[in-house]
């Protein structure tokens, strides 16, 4: 039996279509900011046509679309409004993606509500927001994408290292639980879609510069740096590179059902 030749797989995303999703309830309200924006830009740099999901600022989303088109590599982009915690909106988002570009190859579920409070003090409205964004948004969009995503494609779900480790003075059990769902869901869908050679993986960022760090004290940020093995806080571009690694067929060829910890070394013994 001849060995599989990985060099036959593409090392870019030319001709592919990527949908980058973020939900309404996130502190970062759309894919035009932070990690979502970095992911959209990186996939476009690799040649993908990108659908930028937003539910907040249409103007900010338009900026991302313009920046992608200005790359000059032929990548195109459109912005589509949708609140993916709604089944109807998630279905419409996927349908409009296929209508715009004729296919779907890469789905990135970049949901990210974050709340800090002891379990008995977390308002139930905040708990419902966590579940809506971090669980329902990922489930509904993946559910809508499965029938149309191309065989050999990729689904990448964004979790967080907080599902595995706790941080001092940061009680967030409900948030941890929702991210744990994402990781278990990833493994289940990876098994379901393996006959179609669709790779389904998770990226778990460590502490990363984004809107979620707004209000953090310099003392807290310095503590993170000192306790991170690689000695710095992550950037949105760090996370985008991890997503791109899994999205590209050649680099991500032997990964499915996995959780890639992009954390600067936090939690490396847990991977």
Automatic annotation (TrEMBL):
Q: Which Pfam families match?
A: adh_short_C2
Q: Which InterPro entries match?
A: NAD(P)-bd_dom_sf, SDR_fam
Q: Does the keyword Oxidoreductase apply?
A: yes
The reply to whether Oxidoreductase figures as a keyword in the UniProt entry is yes
> Record's superkingdom?
Eukaryota
Alphabetical keyword list: Oxidoreductase
Membership in a protein family = Belongs to the short-chain dehydrogenases/reductases (SDR) family.
Q: What is this protein called?
A: 3-oxoacyl-[acyl-carrier protein] reductase
Q: Name its species.
A: Polyrhizophydium stewartii
């Amino acid at each position: 039996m001849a060995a599989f030749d990985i060099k036959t797989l593409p090392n870019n995303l030319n001709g592919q279509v990527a949908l980058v999703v973020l939900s309404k309830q996130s502190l970062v309200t759309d894919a035009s900011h932070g990690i979502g924006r970095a992911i959209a830009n990186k996939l476009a740099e690799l040649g993908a046509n990108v659908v930028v999901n937003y539910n907040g600022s249409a103007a900010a989303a338009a900026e991302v679309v313009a920046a992608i088109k200005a790359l000059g590599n032929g990548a195109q982009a459109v912005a589509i409004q949708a609140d993916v915690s709604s089944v109807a909106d998630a279905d419409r988002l996927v349908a409009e993606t296929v209508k715009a570009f004729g296919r779907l190859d890469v789905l990135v579920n970049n949901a990210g509500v974050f709340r800090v409070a002891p379990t008995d003090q977390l308002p139930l409205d905040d708990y419902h927001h966590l579940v809506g964004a971090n669980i329902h948004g990922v489930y509904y969009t993946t559910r809508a994408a499965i029938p149309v995503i191309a065989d050999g494609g990729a689904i990448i779900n964004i979790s967080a290292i907080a599902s595995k480790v706790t941080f001092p003075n940061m009680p967030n059990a409900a948030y941890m639980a929702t991210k744990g769902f994402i990781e278990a869901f990833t493994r289940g869908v990876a098994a379901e879609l393996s006959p179609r050679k669709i790779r389904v993986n998770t990226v778990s960022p460590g502490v990363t510069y984004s809107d979620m760090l707004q209000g953090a004290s310099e003392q807290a940020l310095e503590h993170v740096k000192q306790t991170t093995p690689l000695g710095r806080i992550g950037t949105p571009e760090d996370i985008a590179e991890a997503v791109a690694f899994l999205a590209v067929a050649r680099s991500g060829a032997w990964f499915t059902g996995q959780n890639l910890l992009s954390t600067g070394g936090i939690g490396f013994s847990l991977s």
